[in-house]
Specification:
Blueprint lengths: L2 H9 L5 H10 L5 H34 L7 H7 L15 E5 L6 H9 L4 E5 L21 E5 L3 H5 L2 H4 L6 E3 L9 E3 L5 E6 L12 H10 E4 L22
Parallel strand pairs: 1-6, 1-7, 2-3, 3-6
Antiparallel strand pairs: 4-5
Helix pairs in contact: 1-2, 2-3
Length: 243
């Protein structure tokens, strides 16, 4: 069997990946090595696309099952920073921080502001002091917000200009030789923080200057007691008890 015959059979989905690979090797066609290289490249890319499609399907299914979320005046006020009329007229913006206990729905509420497809979610858990997780997946034009889950105040304070959504490009993954450094431009990109606790005052153990910066640049929203950010079946759209 010639390489072209095998390729056409696989291309029209008349044979499995394993059958295609086996027959390309066994056909002994001198063009088979190039075909095998193309086969591996396409199969790998297709696997990635299939996974992305499955992730999107699951996200949409979970979104359809979610309860409505509670509104909050501070969130509404914070969102106004990102109106189209603000673009190019303000040099920086404030962060929004959801702070509270586990299972309150902080992350889901944060992701719902701009939508899952427009929000890049990254986990800060396990990152060294002052270090942010990789943001190589950030695509300007696709993402309008970045949500930092399980973030700490030392990570925010060590990257102040970044969290102000500054108009200047930001260097990431810096090291002694900057071998893996890359730049991101996060101007007018919404920064959403989620944490069980976030140091905001001197009483929390941070310096006076750090506390002042956090209070001037981070809008914190919390809920009282065991309240959740989503409405439970027995709850109406009445304003939530929040601070």
């Amino acid at each position: 069997m010639l390489q072209s015959t095998v390729w056409n059979q696989w291309r029209h989905r008349k044979m499995t990946d394993d059958e295609c690979y086996r027959d390309l090797v066994r056909c002994r066609d001198p063009r088979a090595p190039q075909a095998l290289q193309a086969f591996e490249y396409i199969r790998k890319k297709e696997t990635i696309q299939n996974l992305q499609d499955e992730i999107a399907r699951v996200h949409e299914q979970l979104r359809s099952l979610q309860r409505p979320f509670k509104q909050h005046p501070e969130i509404t006020k914070w969102e106004e920073q990102f109106l189209p009329t603000k673009y190019g007229t303000v040099p920086r913006t404030r962060c929004l921080a959801f702070v509270g206990g586990s299972q309150q729905g902080k992350t889901s509420r944060g992701m719902a502001i701009f939508g899952i497809s427009k929000t890049l979610k990254v986990s800060c858990q396990g990152c060294p002091s002052g270090i942010l997780p990789g943001l190589s997946s950030f695509v300007r034009g696709k993402h309008v917000a970045i949500l930092f889950d399980e973030i700490r105040s030392d990570q925010v304070l060590s990257n102040r200009e970044f969290f102000q959504s500054s108009a200047y490009p930001q260097a990431m993954s810096q090291s002694t030789c900057n071998q893996y450094a890359y730049e991101v431009w996060v101007y007018h990109i919404a920064m959403i923080l989620c944490a069980n606790h976030l140091e905001m005052t001197e009483a929390d153990g941070i310096s006076e200057s750090d506390a002042d910066w956090m209070q001037q640049n981070v809008t914190v929203v919390t809920l009282e007691g065991k309240a959740t950010w989503y409405l439970k079946p027995d709850q109406s759209e009445a304003p939530p008890i929040c601070t």
